[in-house]
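Reviewers asked in the last cycle whether our approach scales beyond single polypeptides. To address this, we selected a multi-component target totalling 579 residues and predicted its structure end to end. The input consisted of the following lines:
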Amino acid sequence: MNHLRHTRQVTLRYLRALLRQPAWIGITLIQPMIWLLLFGALFKSIARIPGFHGGSYIEFLTPGLIVMLAISSAGWSGMAYIEDMNLGVMDRFLVSPIWRGALNAGSVTQQIIIIAFQSVIVAALSLAVGGHFPGGVGGVAILIGVSALLGASFASLSNALALVVRQRESLIGAVTSVTLPLTFLSTAFMQQTLVPHWIRVIARFNPVNWAVQAGRSAATQHTDWSLVGTRTGFLAALLLVSAWLATRSFRAYQRSI
Amino acid sequence: MAEAIVAQELVKTYPPNVRALDGMSLSARAGTIFALAGPNGAGKSTTVKILTTLSRPDSGAAQVAGLDVLRHPDRVRKAIGVVSQKTGATPEATGRENLIMQGEIYGVRGQALRQRIDELLERFDIGQAADRPTKTYSGGMRRRLDVALGLVNRPQVLFLDEPTTGLDPEARTSLWEEIERLAGEEEMTILLTTHYLDEADRLADQLAIVDRGRIVAQGTPEALKSELRGDAIQVELSEPPRNGRIESVLRGLAGLSEIVIEERIVRARAAHGASAIPGVLNALEREGLAVSSVTLARPSLDDVYLRHAGHLYREDTEQETE
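The resulting structure, written as structure tokens, was:
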């Protein structure tokens, strides 16, 4: 019970900070539009490549974009930890009886809320510019669900890393060198049969691709439920490991101060 | 429970090779104010970090409120309040929101929490600003909120790590009064670190002087001061003495002890300062040294520090000299 109360307090704390920054809200709203319209225009001709069978490119792109936005938002989650360390808030929490897991769970919950919010915007925009979701509302919900699951893992790993490196610059370096390559080593923007063999091999072990495949399949007409099921399972397992690691990392942090 | 805080032979080393604590031992009786005084880098904050379960020592043991800090950190955390050097309040949240979250963390909630918060807001004079984000607070107000945050759970032992650093004199005095009240009326044990010796002098029942990771002197401020015999004489020369002869000359003077020469400053102690000064001035003049000022003072904690730490109390005597 205390675990839930603590998590709720940490979540509220983060959300409050976000909602009191109007600039952040503006950027969160505008960013998906830029990506959707930019990528939609840039890669429009992909749909005409022989062998492409995803319908319109916008339709193909939307799940990939939702997943990409999820990790690029969640990947920065650790920045708030570093901010808290610099302010002294982290130390105040760590000398209190707060459940360590709540510090991660609250941060992750905040990320999930952001992801859900952004994903709905992207889906709505996609519909507005002519995309379709044959998988229906349920399919879109699964798409957002797997994105949130992946984002939760990324947020946890980012938090864990923040506790270990404790430096803004190190975290920025790590996040940028992971999120972008993982996005492009997946089928987020290109159909699986059209990417080079080696990328296809790597993508099989890439959590970003698990989310893209599961989400895209759920949003289409002929959903491959076993694909959705296995990939969701992988993502859930990844989240468990990441959350455990994030909670454990407080020890590393406390050892170093 | 006689001793509320006990530390035994704490050792803490930070990589690559900084020995922050080098056999730190202390004990503070319940219901008293215990001050750790010393310059930055002496090991005060490291001691607080270990006693408040934030950090772990390489070796040694500690008990707070009768609980073992290393074996039962979770129980210790419930019994203590901590006000660290950095503020610790969330800037985007209001004072009240910060206090609510703090209460929830300690399991204080509902009507009891609301009452406690109103009480603290009034007591620390933040009522007016309670519903404003704390980033709009003045330094003194933020510090008062920090102390209020440390008190939400009615701790048995309160740790204050340099509570008045950066405060203006007025804010300092009002915080001092509040700290005295906590120890007096609420019978709380308070461990305070400070690098202002006057603060320790004013507040502490027991004072320990920390230098290079260990305690070099301990006692009541009065006892520490009375250990020093006589008055402190300080002579400022217009330029530093060119050779060490002056020290031996001064040593030859009757009634003068503890002679320390640092740059242009000559310090000594004499049972009757006023009658020793002419002799000192004569000796300096014979050595051809021009004097720009002379001060005579009753013993202060600065002198206690100088005597026990062997060097002048200065904030810049950190490990960087190693």
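Chain B has two domains: 3-220, 229-298. We regard this as preliminary and will revisit it once experimental data from Aim 1 are available.
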